[in-house]
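Good morning,

Attaching, inline, the backbone tokens for the sequence recovery test we're adding to the shared suite. The designed sequence is right after.
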């Protein structure tokens, strides 16, 4: 079955030392400490060890063949967003990353699809970079689940979402800067607990803040199966019903009405949960997503869907057809 892996991350092999260039911050640099491996350094601290498949297209193509993935959607690693930086400096970082991704999908147009990254801390600069990237052949943009702890329904982001709508740009929302992570440093809890909560935070902000009502043609996909939003939707709806004075103050529409109006990826790690999200939003609103090439991602991208006890038609839709609609390809 034709397969598009919609959730994969990539980084340039060599990154300028933006810390020295700008004179501040903990911008990511790469320390290639051994063959085909590098440490992502956040300032002088080790953030994550990555391998050659994180930067080398040829390696990715070989592994895509092994994984039966015909195409990958490629976007930066969220730690590279740099929302915390001065806006003009973040723009320089984003442009560097976007030019690298563009080179990859322009070299292999039948294999890679690009999602840009933009400086969301400055809406006008974010729109400017999005416009540039769409002209380069990007299909959309990846943004974080919050921007410097601001929820995505804040009025300052309205112009950006309007621009995404007018430019026909798909949006992938990825968890990052997990709320409360400083209070749960053990056991990898920011990734296990914080990330699912961050995506629910983003979806609830879109719904309760009326973003979907303002921009009805937005094509938004939320990573990691929508995080904890769908499993806790009953509680969310109950809150909307019992305390509308707190929940429904900006949008009176029941949250359940938005099911089927956004996409989620299939990276839920469990067949029962995959069936659950199919029941909730429909197979046509689920895209194959692996979080390749990271350990918390799907070990064999696409295997969860291929091995699931669902129909061949549902597999075909999730593995490829739904992504074509989300990305408008």
């Amino acid at each position: 079955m034709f397969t598009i892996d919609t959730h994969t991350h990539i980084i340039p092999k060599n990154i300028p030392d933006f810390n020295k260039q700008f004179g501040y911050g903990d911008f990511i640099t790469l320390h290639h400490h051994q063959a085909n491996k590098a440490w992502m350094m956040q300032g002088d601290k080790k953030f994550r060890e990555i391998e050659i498949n994180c930067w080398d297209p040829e390696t990715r193509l070989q592994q895509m063949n092994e994984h039966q993935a015909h195409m990958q959607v490629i976007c930066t690693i969220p730690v590279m967003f740099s929302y915390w930086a001065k806006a003009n400096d973040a723009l320089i970082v984003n442009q560097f990353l976007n030019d690298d991704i563009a080179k990859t999908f322009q070299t292999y147009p039948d294999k890679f699809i690009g999602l840009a990254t933009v400086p969301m801390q400055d809406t006008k600069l974010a729109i400017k970079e999005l416009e540039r990237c769409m002209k380069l052949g990007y299909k959309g943009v990846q943004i974080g689940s919050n921007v410097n702890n601001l929820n995505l329904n804040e009025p300052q982001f309205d112009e950006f979402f309007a621009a995404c709508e007018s430019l026909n740009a798909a949006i992938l929302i990825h968890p990052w800067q997990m709320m409360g992570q400083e209070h749960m440093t053990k056991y990898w809890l920011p990734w296990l607990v914080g990330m699912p909560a961050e995506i629910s935070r983003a979806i609830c902000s879109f719904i309760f803040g009326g973003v979907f009502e303002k921009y009805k043609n937005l094509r938004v996909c939320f990573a990691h199966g929508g995080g904890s939003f769908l499993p806790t939707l009953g509680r969310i709806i109950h809150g909307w019903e019992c305390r509308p004075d707190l929940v429904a103050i900006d949008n009176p529409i029941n949250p359940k009405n938005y099911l089927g109006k956004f996409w989620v990826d299939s990276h839920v790690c469990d067949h029962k949960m995959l069936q659950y999200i199919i029941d909730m939003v429909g197979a046509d609103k689920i895209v194959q997503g692996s979080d390749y090439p990271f350990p918390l991602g799907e070990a064999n991208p696409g295997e969860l869907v291929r091995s699931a006890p669902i129909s061949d038609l549902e597999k075909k839709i999730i593995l490829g057809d739904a992504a074509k609609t989300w990305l408008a390809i």
